[in-house]
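Deliverable D2.4 — example input (structure tokens):
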């Protein structure tokens, strides 16, 4: 494990979240094809990959030499994939991009390109980012979209809350009208 070239510390996270609002997080992971993982898979694993073998939808084996393109692709999958809160990512005001994986798979240029891609696709221009080298057979990307403006589920919950408030007010009015006719006393 080493120290990242572009470190993300707590102040970066706090500054991304400042201003409140709704935040959604996206995550994507890909396996790194190393000599060790090639040996584990054996000869048939390589043939299976070449001729359309099944892979999980959320995993993709990273191959080739262009580390920058792999990182950008991973960040795109994290942002365009399944977010913790389904929303229109283009309405986000700020974002944070974090890449974690083996140090030899980290690429500063790739992280910068990924940040630029996120910046082009959100409403704001504040995009922070960094890398976190770990001893792993996977490369992962986390994208945090802060102050999202359009989240359909939040609108649904606000509509339900509005209806509930109206029902409570109607219920209180109904109770207050119930005793206006007068009650005969039980004891005189």
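Example output (designed residues):
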């Amino acid at each position: 494990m080493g120290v990242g070239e572009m470190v993300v510390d707590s102040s970066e996270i706090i500054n991304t979240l400042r201003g409140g609002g709704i935040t959604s997080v996206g995550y994507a992971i890909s396996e790194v094809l190393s000599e060790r993982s090639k040996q584990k898979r054996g000869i048939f694993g390589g043939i299976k990959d070449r001729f359309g073998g099944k892979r999980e939808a959320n995993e993709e084996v990273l191959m080739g030499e262009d580390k920058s393109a792999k990182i950008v692709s991973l960040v795109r999958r994290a942002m365009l994939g399944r977010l913790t809160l389904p929303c229109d990512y283009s309405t986000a005001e700020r974002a944070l991009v974090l890449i974690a994986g083996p140090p030899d798979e980290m690429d500063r240029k790739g992280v910068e390109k990924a940040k630029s891609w996120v910046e082009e696709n959100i409403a704001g221009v504040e995009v922070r980012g960094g890398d976190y080298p770990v001893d792993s057979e996977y490369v992962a990307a986390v994208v945090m979209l802060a102050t999202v403006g359009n989240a359909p589920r939040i609108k649904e919950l606000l509509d339900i809350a509005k209806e509930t408030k109206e029902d409570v007010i109607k219920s209180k009015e109904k109770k207050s009208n119930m005793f206006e006719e007068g009650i005969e006393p039980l004891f005189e």
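The first strand starts at residue 22 and ends at 32.
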